[in-house]
Amino acid sequence: MLSMVIITFLFGLIIGSFLNVCIHRIPRGESIIFPASHCPHCGYFLKPWDLIPVFSFLILRGRCSSCGEKILRRYPFVELLTGILFSLLVFKYGFTVKTFYYCFFAALLIVIAFVDLENFLIPNKVNLVLLVSGIIFHFLFSPLGLVNPILTFLGTGFLFLFLQILFRGGLGGGDVKFAALLGLWLGWPKTVFAIFLGSFLGSIIGISLIILKKRKRKDPVPYGPFLVTGTFIVLLLGDFYMVLSDRNVSLKCERGFTLVEILVVIVIISFLASLAVPSIQGILSAQRLEKAAKEMLADLRLAQHQAISQESEYRVIINHTSSTYYIRDFINNKTIKEVKLPTGIRFLNSHIVYFYANGTTLNQTIKLRNEDDGFLYIILYRTGRMRISNKPPSE
Do 10 and 125 reside in the same domain of the chain? Predict the structure, then answer.
């Protein structure tokens, strides 16, 4: 059994690497298959040795082997998380086809959690995959058929739709659909416990952030990660709700865990999370700002490269009111790319960046700001050199 758990962990690391691709590309509407994995900053296509989960990050010291830009710590974290979750699921449920579906479910949940955490959205494409796979799962493995999961799906969906209408702005449409799909996958009453645990953790962190003045009451908080956390706890606990309602039921889970052991783990994790709460919102906001700045710098370099290779003039038009920018081929009067900044990130003013056929541009500074009044500056020099700084060029 131990050897199977280790093999599953290694397999989970590989799947986690692919999930990172999904987390990065799906919100941008890009294919998760083509092109091959590449650096988002310089476009360098990664070699096989750059793709070894976790170890490549450590060997390269968290930087691209081509341009030297920092790699998000999310990459090794997602890989490790996927490996650990897959191992726990195999340890608990055994090496079966049903466990394979649970691992597939866990992979989708990881994508949803991190996309929502970074972009404040739950993609419809992932929800659609959850819907289809959930129906197939119950068709294959549920002894009671689809009645329970479908009724739970409808009940949870209508409940969250009501909450969305009642508390406008608190829940997004993606949250409503995702909660309903958890009802389809988990059925009654596991869905109730997953939502309760997720809401409980979300409330603790949200209230703590407000008390510590790290966020305001009306600031958006991604709800998906908390629902996902509650779901993982339920998956690992199994039918623990039966223990709470029937004294004659053994405290043992299907394999390896006891209710007391897991509750202790939950308490420890919650305590550690509460210690980290003061910096969570600020860290996430700073990461989104840095990520947006790096992606824009990559697009500026793309426009510069196109101007040189096409021996033409390219312009990057920045609209601060809509928080968007466009890459345009000035000679052919054609828009090459249009990008909208992530939620909470905005430009301080509008610009037009010119790139000439020799790669040169004009001296100017593009200012980006997040909701926590954090700033980053993209500084452009007449020679064509560009860089990101946390200080304006005059300092």
Answer: yes
Q: Select from 287, 306, 322 the last residue of a domain.
A: 287
Distance in angstroms (rounded) separating the CA atoms of residues 81 and 383: 44
Buried b (16+ CB within 10 A) or exposed e, 182-207: bbbbbbeebbbbbbebbeebbeebbe
**Three-state secondary structure call for residue 180:** helix
Task: Supply the range of the domain harboring residue 307.
Answer: 292-389
From 257, 287, 317, the end of a domain falls on 287
- Helix 74-93 / helix 2-25 crossing angle, nearest 10 deg: 140
Burial of 382 (0-12, 13-18, 19+ CB in 10 A): exposed
Q: pTM to 2 decimals?
A: 0.64
Q: Give the SS3 label for residue 279.
A: helix
Burial label, 8 (beta-carbon count in 10 A; 0-12, 13-18, 19+) = buried
- Domain assignment present for residue 58? The answer is yes
Residue 341 covered by a domain: yes
User: Do 173 and 44 belong to one domain?
Assistant: yes
197: its two tokens: 């645990």
- Listed in order, strand segments (DSSP E) in the chain are 314-319, 324-329, 334-340, 346-347, 351-355, 364-369, 375-380, 386-389
Which tens digit of pLDDT belongs to each residue from 206-232?
A: 777 777 766 666 666 778 888 999 999
Distance CA 94, CA 97 (A): 9
Please write the tens of the pLDDT for every residue from 129-181: 999 998 888 888 876 667 788 888 888 888 888 887 776 656 777 788 888 89
Place of tokens 């709470």: 244
Asked if the structure places residue 394 within a domain, the reply is no
Is the separation of the CB atoms in 299 and 316 below 8 Å?
yes
